Amino acid sequence: QLQLVESGGGLVHPGGSLRLSCAASGFTFNYYTIGWFRQAPGKEREGVSSISISEGTTYYADSVKGRFTISRDNAKNTVYLQMNSLKPEDTAVYYCARRLYFKGPPWTDFGSWGPGTQVTVSS
Question: How far is 100 from 69, CA to CA, in rounded Å?
Fold first, then answer.
């Protein structure tokens, strides 16, 4: 059964760090690109970062560049999002999803969404 499951969210102070995980199952992991997205209350979902599983090529939204790092562990079929220097505006539900290609418009054609994990940055 195809599945993407996020974990690792929580409450953190501004300037703190969290590492999110996206565990994949039920499909050939290294055929895909995995993307992280987030949606804050009252706002549209936005792309955060993506990684080509086979090549390790990465892409970041400008809002997180230099603070977030995406990586993958092919042996564990898992993608990570290391989030440092967190800001209150990073507060959102974070989702992972997959698509078959890496190059092209950065945030289109993703599917098989996980249930999400809540990240709250607050003092």
Answer: 21
For residue range 15-66, list pLDDT tens digits in order: 999 999 999 999 999 999 999 999 999 999 999 999 999 999 999 999 999 9
The DSSP bridge pattern shows strands 92-99 and 33-39 to be antiparallel
Tell me how far apart the alpha carbons of residues 123 and 50 are, in angstroms, rounded to a whole number.
29
Hey, what are 56's tokens? Answer: 């390790």
Distance between CA atoms of residues 45 and 26, nearest Å? 25
- Edge-to-edge strand order for the sheet containing 117-121? 10-12, 117-121, 92-99, 33-39, 46-52, 58-60
Q: Going along the chain, which residue ranges are E strands?
A: 3-7, 10-12, 18-25, 33-39, 46-52, 58-60, 68-73, 78-83, 92-99, 117-121
